């Protein structure tokens, strides 16, 4: 008998609340209604985010001689972030991802195993506690990061154009892109609002799917601990048999005490061993599906962090040039 759905847990509600608007949460898989606008946004998000990637590279090409090294590095990082967003935005459109999430919520979550014993219940509470705190911290960091990413350029623009009245001031953006015949500088308000929208999609998909991956990993670790506990606390035989050795060379040696399962204990041990094997199969099956879905995503994620860290270190090493 299964307990109530994990969808009622606080941290699942949190991640569902900010993944659902951009279409990252497959609500229809769990029998929830999803508006036509969100479904349309989910399908089209990879395409118009790809346009931002193209626009970012075109902006680099078109302004390569006018950009400073710091600006050049900033545009490369934001363009790579857009590429990461493109890959993440494809996930909700994949049936394999929907099946994995359904398997995680409906079958693999430790909540469905609490009826099997006290240690299952204990591990479920511990994993839920860790997941809850981690979700709240990640959510706060996501919104703070999104706010800080956009507030800097907005503050500088307002300060220099409204208060200081700076002449020949070039407007700043959080995300730079351009196309032949289109310059965002000609549409400051619209471009700024659209940049906030892009930042929202990027932060929710990056942090949201990373958080979802961590929640799955926490559950997997909980299953591994339970499996180890069951193997370490395997029942021992109640019957002890004394073996004596015959022959001259064994005459002065003591007998050997052996433990042996009786027929009833053999049946019980066979059942427990079968449960452990089945539990191990469940863990392996889920981790295989998890690796298949998130493996390519993490590979590109590592590439992004590698390039970004190298660029940032290079920019820091250059320092500020004196005029």
Structure description:
The chain has helices at residues 10-19, 36-62, 69-90, 95-108, 118-163, 188-232, 263-318; strands at 239-243, 256-260. It has one domain. The mean pLDDT is 88. It is mainly α. It has seven helices and two strands; from the N terminus they run H-H-H-H-H-H-E-E-H. Helix content is 68%, strand content 3%.
Write the layout of secondary structure elements.
Layout: H1 10-19, H2 36-62, H3 69-90, H4 95-108, H5 118-163, H6 188-232, E1 239-243, E2 256-260, H7 263-318
Antiparallel strand pairs: 1-2
Helix pairs in contact: 1-5, 2-3, 3-6, 3-7, 4-7, 5-6, 6-7
Poorly predicted ranges (pLDDT <50, ≥5 residues)?
Answer: none
How does the helix and strand content classify structurally?
A: mainly alpha
Counted beta strands? 2
In whole angstroms, the N-to-C terminal distance is 74 Å
Q: What's this, in brief?
A:
The protein contains 7 helices and 2 strands. It has helices at 10-19, 36-62, 69-90, 95-108, 118-163, 188-232, 263-318, and strands at 239-243, 256-260. One of its GO terms (cellular component) is plasma membrane.
């Amino acid at each position: 008998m299964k307990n109530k759905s994990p969808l009622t847990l606080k941290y699942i509600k949190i991640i569902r609340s900010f993944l659902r608007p951009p279409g990252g949460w497959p609500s229809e898989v769990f029998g929830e209604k999803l508006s036509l606008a969100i479904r349309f946004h989910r399908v089209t998000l990879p395409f118009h985010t790809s346009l931002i990637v193209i626009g970012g590279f075109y902006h680099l090409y078109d302004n390569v001689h006018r950009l400073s090294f710091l600006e050049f590095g900033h545009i490369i990082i934001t363009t790579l972030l857009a590429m990461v967003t493109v890959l993440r935005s494809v996930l909700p459109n994949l049936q394999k991802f929907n099946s994995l999430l359904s398997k995680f919520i409906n079958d693999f979550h430790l909540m469905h195993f609490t009826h099997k014993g006290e240690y299952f219940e204990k591990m479920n509470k511990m994993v839920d506690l860790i997941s809850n705190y981690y979700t709240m911290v990640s959510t706060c960091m996501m919104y703070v990061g999104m706010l800080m990413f956009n507030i800097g350029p907005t503050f500088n623009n307002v300060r220099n154009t409204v208060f200081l009245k700076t002449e020949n001031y070039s407007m700043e953006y959080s995300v730079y892109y351009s196309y032949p015949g289109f310059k965002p500088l000609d549409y400051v308000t619209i471009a700024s609002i659209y940049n906030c929208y892009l930042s929202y999609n990027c932060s929710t998909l990056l942090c949201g799917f990373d958080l979802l991956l961590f929640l799955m990993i926490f559950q997997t670790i909980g299953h591994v601990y339970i499996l180890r506990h069951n193997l370490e606390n395997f029942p021992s035989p109640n019957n002890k048999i004394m073996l004596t050795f015959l022959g001259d060379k064994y005459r002065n040696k003591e007998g050997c005490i052996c433990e042996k399962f009786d027929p009833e204990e053999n049946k019980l041990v066979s059942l427990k061993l079968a449960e452990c094997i089945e539990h191990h199969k469940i863990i392996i099956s889920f981790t295989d599906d998890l690796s298949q879905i998130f493996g390519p995503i993490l590979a590109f994620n590592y590439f992004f962090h590698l390039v970004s860290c190298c660029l940032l270190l290079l920019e820091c090493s250059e320092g500020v040039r004196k005029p």
